[in-house]
C-alpha cells in the first residue's frame, strides 16, 4: 500500500493556530470578566501557534500527544500569559472554559466543512472568516469602550467622592476615595496610572517586593519615591451623585506615609484615567 503524502503549508497552519488561540483567549476573558490588551492576546496566541508548529513539524508528535499537550500544557500556559490569573479556582475555571470553547469551535468548523461543500473547496475560507470576525469583534469592543469613556467623563464631572473596595491578594480593603483631577502620577516604565493610598490601610504582611517605584513631587516635597502594588477586583461607587459604579480588573496603588486628608474624609486619591476608559497597558 503506497504511503500517503500530505502537503503542509506552514504559513496557513500558523495563521489558523494564531486566529484560533486569539479567539479562545478573547472569549475566555469575556466569560471570566477579565481584560487584556490586544497586544498581549496577540503575543500569547503567537506563542501558542509557535509551540504547536514546533511539536507538530519539528518533534513530529503523534496526534494523541498533540491533543494532550494542547489542552494540558499550551492552553493553560496561554491563559496565564494573557490574564496572569493567580487564584487556583479561577485558573481551573478558565482552563475548563477554554477547553469547552475549543471543542465548540472545532465542532463548528468540522460541521461547516462536512455539510457545506464550498468550505471544503476553499481551504482558506475559514481562516479568512475568522480574521474578519476578529476584526469586527475588536471594532465593536473599541466602540463600546469609547461610549463608556464618554459616559465616565460625564460621571467624573458629577461626582468627586467614591466608595472604593478592592483586594490585595486575599485581603479586602474598603475606604473613601477622592477623585483628584490634577493627579498625573504614572509608573514611569509602562505609563500605568497610579492611585495614592494611605500606607496605614495596606496590610504589613503584603509589603514584599513592590510592583513599581514611582517618583513624585508635591508642595513641601520636591522629590520623593512611592512604592506601588497591584490591587485586584476594584469597585468604585459614587457617593455624591446618581451614577453607575466603575469596575477595574487591576489598579496600581502607591503607598503614602501620612494622611491625605486632615479630617480623614478620604484616604485614597484616584487617578482620572480610571474613569476615562484609558488602557493601562
Question: What does the model show?
Answer:
47% of the residues lie in helices and 22% in strands. It has 281 residues and is an alpha+beta fold. Strands 1-2-7-3-6-5 form a six-stranded mixed beta barrel. It has six helices and seven strands; from the N terminus they run ααααααβββββββ. It folds into two domains: 142 residues; 116 residues, Cathepsin D, subunit A, domain 1, CATH 2.40.70. The radius of gyration is 24 Å and the shape is elongated.
How many strands appear in the DSSP assignment?
7
**Which structural class is indicated by helix and strand composition?**
alpha+beta
Number of helices: 6
Largest sheet: 6 strands, mixed, barrel
Shape: elongated
Radius of gyration: 24 Å
Q: Which parts are unreliable, with pLDDT below 50 for 5 consecutive residues or more?
A: none
The succession of helices and strands, N to C, reads HHHHHHEEEEEEE
* N- and C-termini, Cα separation: 57 Å
What is the strand content? 15-25%
Could you estimate the helical fraction of the residues in percent? 40-55%
Tell me the number of structural domains.
Answer: 2
Q: Looking across the biggest beta sheet, what order are the strands in?
A: 1-2-7-3-6-5
Q: Mean pLDDT score, rounded?
A: 79
How would you briefly describe this protein structure?
With 281 residues, the chain is of the alpha+beta class. The protein folds into two domains: 10-151; 159-274, Cathepsin D, subunit A, domain 1 (Beta Barrel). It has helices at 10-32, 38-58, 63-83, 88-115, 117-121, 125-158; strands spanning 161-168, 171-179, 194-198, 212-218, 221-238, 246-256, 268-270.
Amino acid at each position: 500500500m503506497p504511503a500517503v503524502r500530505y502537503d503542509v503549508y506552514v504559513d496557513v497552519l500558523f495563521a489558523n493556530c494564531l486566529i484560533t488561540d486569539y479567539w479562545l483567549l478573547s472569549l475566555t476573558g469575556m466569560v471570566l470578566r477579565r481584560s487584556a490588551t490586544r497586544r498581549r492576546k496577540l503575543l500569547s496566541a503567537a506563542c501558542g501557534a509557535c509551540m504547536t508548529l514546533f511539536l507538530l513539524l519539528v518533534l513530529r508528535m503523534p496526534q494523541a500527544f498533540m491533543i494532550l499537550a494542547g489542552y494540558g500544557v499550551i492552553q493553560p500556559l496561554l491563559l496565564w500569559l494573557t490574564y496572569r490569573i493567580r487564584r487556583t479556582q479561577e485558573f481551573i475555571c478558565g482552563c475548563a472554559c477554554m477547553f469547552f470553547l475549543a471543542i465548540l469551535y472545532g465542532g463548528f468548523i468540522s460541521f461547516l466543512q462536512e455539510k457545506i461543500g464550498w468550505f471544503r473547496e476553499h481551504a482558506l475560507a475559514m481562516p479568512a472568516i475568522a480574521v474578519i470576525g476578529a476584526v469586527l469583534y475588536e471594532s465593536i469592543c473599541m466602540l463600546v469602550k469609547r461610549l463608556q469613556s464618554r459616559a465616565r467623563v460625564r460621571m467624573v464631572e458629577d461626582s468627586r467622592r467614591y466608595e472604593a473596595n478592592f483586594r490585595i491578594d486575599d485581603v479586602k480593603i474598603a475606604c473613601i476615595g477622592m477623585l483628584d483631577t490634577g493627579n498625573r502620577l504614572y509608573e514611569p516604565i509602562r505609563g500605568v496610572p497610579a492611585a495614592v493610598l494611605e500606607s496605614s490601610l495596606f496590610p504589613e504582611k503584603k509589603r514584599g517586593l513592590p510592583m513599581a517605584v514611582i517618583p513624585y513631587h508635591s508642595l513641601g516635597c520636591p522629590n520623593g519615591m512611592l512604592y506601588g502594588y497591584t490591587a485586584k477586583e476594584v469597585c468604585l461607587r459614587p457617593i455624591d451623585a446618581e451614577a453607575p459604579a466603575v469596575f477595574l480588573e487591576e489598579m496600581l496603588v502607591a503607598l503614602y506615609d501620612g494622611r491625605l486628608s486632615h479630617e480623614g474624609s478620604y484616604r485614597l486619591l484616584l487617578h482620572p484615567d480610571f474613569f476615562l476608559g484609558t488602557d493601562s497597558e
